[in-house]
């Protein structure tokens, strides 16, 4: 998600990425205490659940 006011033009859900993507961009290794076979599955997923917006028009 860009750190600018322009980010408000898109719903936050447009910026969801996998843990693998975060690791690739940051150089960090996350979920290291999780067994490798489970870690591999979890890190590859991108949440696609639809969330209703709670953003109010007055903002």
Distance between the termini: 19 Å
Largest sheet: none
Helix content: 25-40%
Backbone CA Rg: 15 Å
Structural class: mainly alpha
List unreliable stretches of 5+ residues: none
The H-and-E topology, N to C, reads as HH
Question: Strand-residue fraction?
Answer: under 5%
Number of strands: 0
- Looking at the structure, what is the overall shape? flat
Count of alpha/pi helices: 2
Return the average pLDDT rounded to an integer: 84
Counting copies of identical and different chains, the oligomeric state is single chain
Give the SSE layout.
Elements lengths: L18 H8 L9 H9 L15
Descriptive account of the structure:
The chain has 2 helices and no strands. The protein is mainly α and 59 residues long. The model has no long low-confidence stretch (mean pLDDT 84).
Keywords, separated by commas or semicolons:
59 residues; mainly alpha
Structure summarized in a few sentences:
The chain has 59 residues and is an all-alpha fold.
């Amino acid at each position: 998600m860009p750190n600018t006011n322009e980010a408000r033009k898109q719903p936050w859900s447009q910026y969801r990425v996998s843990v693998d993507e975060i690791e690739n961009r940051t150089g960090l290794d996350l979920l290291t205490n999780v067994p490798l076979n489970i870690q591999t599955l979890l890190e590859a997923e991108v949440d696609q659940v639809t969330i209703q917006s709670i953003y109010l028009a007055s903002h």
